[in-house]
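sry for the spam today, last one i promise. struct tokens for design, 144 residues
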């Protein structure tokens, strides 16, 4: 079962959201309080959306966080996948169904495309299998 959480449901899933987001985004411990505060604010104000997949026992098996954004160059609205996290391994069919669920949301929101960024090979592989094309790579070097 795939569901979009309402902002008022976020507190009930907050521990799972915190865990999944910190793991998926590989947040440094020093940055965690600010990161989690911004994420919670975005989810409660509906600036970010949380989708969950539950199994037949209504156990949480996957979590996805998205944001509807505007491309600064083209001014097109798009759906950015921020977090994709699974507690259980699932096949490509489940992932395709997850993607179609999210794509329908993006279409409903008037988005022109769906975007995702990752440095995890498993997510890159999944995105490629789903038909995503690589757009760019981002690199960072800390100086402080």
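last one done:
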């Amino acid at each position: 079962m795939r569901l979009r959480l309402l902002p008022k449901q976020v507190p009930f899933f907050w521990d799972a959201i915190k865990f999944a987001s910190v793991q998926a985004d590989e947040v440094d411990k020093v940055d965690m309080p600010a990161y989690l505060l911004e994420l919670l604010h975005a989810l409660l104000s509906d600036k970010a959306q949380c989708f969950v997949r539950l199994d037949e026992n209504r156990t949480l098996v996957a979590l996805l966080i998205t944001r509807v954004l505007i491309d600064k160059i083209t001014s097109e609205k798009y759906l950015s996948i921020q977090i994709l996290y699974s507690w259980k391994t699932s096949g490509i069919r489940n992932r395709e169904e997850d993607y179609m669920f999210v794509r329908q949301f993006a279409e409903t929101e008037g988005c022109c495309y769906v975007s995702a960024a990752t440095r995890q090979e498993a997510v890159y592989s999944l995105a490629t299998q789903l038909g995503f094309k690589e757009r760019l790579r981002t690199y960072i070097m800390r100086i402080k």
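The helical segments are 10-25, 32-44, 92-108, 121-129. ok im logging off now
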